[in-house]
Every structure is written in structure tokens, then in C-alpha cells.
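Whiteboard transcription, Tuesday session. T.W. wrote the C-alpha cells on the left side:
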């Protein structure tokens, strides 16, 4: 039973972090949406748990060859599957609607990536229009593209297709546009490779460039909340247990230029996973003056790419310590946890038209020894 300081976060977790598809654990099948809003009436940021560690120099003093990039098929060479929206009248069932080779436009075989839309209005796949091979679009405001020359991903989501002028109300579903890998394939790796995925690595550095290229909001006085969130989550899973944590970076939120770290549990509706959420606030990686996705007190769709580079190892340590103190984790060591999945993209409440670009995404693990 969770009885400590993390419990109050149940009522605010999803407003702040917006978890996506549920973990592939013994208790939950993936992917399943866990991001429905919970009861909350104020649009101010609630009290947050203070997280202590600051990220050290992200370039550790480790031999050059003792590192590994962890995200499989980072160049989308194997294409992407397009996933249906969720059938809430049929156990939230989903299906693969089709696949796309982003280099030649043909169907793809065994893609690692999924493009998920969950609850976003007319189906993206059913409304796709002819486009360049590296672009998946309905021509109405939902587009995912990957440019192999610049290693740039584009996420465009216009949520007006979902809301149709209606307010965003408590308990409603959230529009999404995400890329996801629910399983990096840890179980099929060699022991040497698995060591890099375990959370006791000497250093795990997330790096990428990001910029907001389009942003508008249609305010509705009856909206419960208006929250445009662009998030990155890694799936921290138990090596030999069904432990799970959404471990993420709060990359963009239209309500706060610099967000704090957040810790809580996924709750608020019947299909919530109950999983721990640990999100690193943008204050930790947008540190330099002018190096956020805002300008003059508002989201800035005309800014340049901003480089993000952060060692997440200290935050993994804090995640485990808090989860153990709360009786959540079954394993008591970082070596018993690994990173084995991820998602990235928009999770939005309210009517927004927004586009984000991300390039050169990597998660690099360093170990002084290969075991």
C-alpha cells in the first residue's frame, strides 16, 4: 500500500505529466491509454515533490568504446506501424491499421515503432492523403514525418478535429499523437548488451534538439483545463519482476515555461495503471537564459532548435529511493531495473494547433566495464 508523500499526487499526476500507453507488465497489457483527466478545477501548478539531484557533466570519464545507444531503429529504417484509436466500448481494443516504410512509402515489415493516436477525432489512417514517403498525414492537422537527412521528426496535432468547438470536460479522453516502442527487446539481447540497458549503468545520457514550429490555442471558457504537453517517457521495467515506472522529461507545457520535477502515481479513472510517474522538469535541462520553448512569457513557435543533454542516472537513483520508501518497488537495486521502451509526442487537453520538431534523439548508456 502506498502511504507516504506520493499519494496526494494521484489527483494531479496526469495534468502534469500525461502518461501514455500502459506498461507491458504482468498486470497490464500494452499499449493501453492511461491518460484520462482526473478531478481538478484549478489551472495553477499544484505543490510538487522537491527532487534533489542535479545532473553532472553529461560526458563521463569512461573509455570511448564502453557505451551503447539504446533506442532501437533510431533512423526508422524498419518503418512504423499506424495504430487505431481506442474502442472504449470494447475494452479499449486497438489494432494495427497498416505500416509505412518512411524511405520508399511501401508497407514495412516488422517495424519497431508505432504511431499512436488514441483519442483524436477522425482516424488518421482512414483519412490519410497521398504524401511524400516519409510523411504520414491526413491533410487536416495531424502529421508525423521523419527526415532521414537531418534525423528530424515532426509531430503536428490539431485537436479541433476532436473537440469540434466543444469544451474539454473532466473525465473526457485526451487527443494524442505519439511515437512508441513498448519493448526495446531487452530479453533477446546478449548479457553484455543487457548491461547497458540496466539502470545501474555509470551514466545514461539523453540528448536531442527540439523546437516549437507552430502553436495556437482556441480558448473555451468552459474548458476544465487547457494543457498542451509534449513529453518523452522511458519505460523503466523490472528485470525479473513486474516493476514499472513512467520515467520522463517534461519537454513542453503551455502553462509553465520552466517546470519542476514531478513524482506521483497514475490514477483518476478505471483503466489507470497505478504505475509510478517520475518526470524531470524542464528547469533541469533548459538552464541557460533564453534556452526554452518560450519567449516574452508565451510559447514561441518561431524559435531556433534548442539542444538538450542530460544524464538521467541521478534521477533514476532518486526514483528508486522514493519508490522504495513508498513500498512501490519489489526490487531494491538499480541493477534490477532496465530501460525497455519509450514514447514521445503530444498529449493535449483543449483545442490547440501545435507542431514540434525533434532531431538527433539518442539515449546513450556508459559503463566503465562491459558487465
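and on the right, the sequence the group agreed on:
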Amino acid at each position: 500500500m502506498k502511504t507516504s508523500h506520493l499519494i496526494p499526487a494521484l489527483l494531479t499526476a496526469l495534468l502534469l505529466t500525461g502518461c501514455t500507453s500502459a506498461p507491458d507488465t504482468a498486470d497490464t497489457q500494452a499499449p493501453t491509454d492511461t491518460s484520462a483527466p482526473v478531478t481538478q478545477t484549478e489551472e495553477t501548478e499544484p505543490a510538487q515533490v522537491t527532487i534533489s539531484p542535479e545532473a553532472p557533466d553529461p560526458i563521463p570519464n569512461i573509455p570511448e568504446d564502453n557505451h551503447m545507444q539504446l533506442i532501437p531503429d533510431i533512423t526508422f529504417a524498419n518503418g512504423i506501424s499506424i495504430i487505431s484509436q481506442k474502442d472504449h466500448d470494447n475494452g479499449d481494443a486497438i489494432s494495427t491499421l497498416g505500416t509505412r516504410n518512411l524511405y520508399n512509402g511501401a508497407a514495412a515489415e516488422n517495424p519497431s515503432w508505432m504511431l499512436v493516436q488514441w483519442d483524436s477525432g477522425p482516424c488518421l489512417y482512414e483519412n490519410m492523403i497521398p504524401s511524400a514517403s516519409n510523411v504520414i498525414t491526413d491533410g487536416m492537422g495531424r502529421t508525423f514525418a521523419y527526415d532521414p537527412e537531418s534525423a528530424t521528426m515532426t509531430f503536428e496535432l490539431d485537436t479541433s478535429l476532436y473537440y469540434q468547438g466543444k469544451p474539454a470536460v473532466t473525465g473526457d479522453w485526451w487527443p494524442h499523437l505519439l511515437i512508441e516502442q513498448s519493448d526495446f527487446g531487452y530479453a533477446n539481447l546478449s548479457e553484455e548488451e543487457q548491461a547497458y540497458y540496466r539502470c545501474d549503468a555509470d551514466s545514461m545520457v539523453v540528448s536531442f534538439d527540439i523546437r516549437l514550429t507552430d502553436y495556437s490555442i482556441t480558448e473555451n471558457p468552459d474548458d476544465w483545463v487547457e494543457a498542451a504537453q509534449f513529453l518523452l517517457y522511458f519505460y523503466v521495467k523490472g528485470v525479473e519482476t513486474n516493476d514499472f515506472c513512467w520515467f520522463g522529461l517534461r519537454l513542453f507545457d503551455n502553462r509553465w515555461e520552466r517546470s519542476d520535477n514531478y513524482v506521483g502515481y497514475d490514477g483518476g479513472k478505471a483503466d489507470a495503471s497505478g504505475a509510478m510517474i517520475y518526470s524531470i522538469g524542464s528547469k533541469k535541462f533548459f538552464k541557460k537564459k533564453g534556452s526554452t520553448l518560450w519567449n516574452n512569457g508565451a510559447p514561441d513557435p518561431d524559435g531556433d532548435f534548442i539542444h538538450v543533454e542530460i544524464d538521467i542516472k541521478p534521477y533514476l537513483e532518486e526514483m528508486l529511493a522514493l519508490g522504495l520508501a513508498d513500498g512501490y518497488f519489489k526490487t531494491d537495486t538499480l541493477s534490477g531495473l532496465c530501460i525497455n521502451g519509450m514514447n514521445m509526442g503530444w498529449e493535449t487537453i483543449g483545442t490547440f494547433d501545435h507542431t514540434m520538431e525533434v532531431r538527433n534523439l539518442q539515449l546513450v548508456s556508459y559503463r566503465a566495464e562491459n558487465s
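Someone added at the bottom: The longest strand covers residues 203-218.
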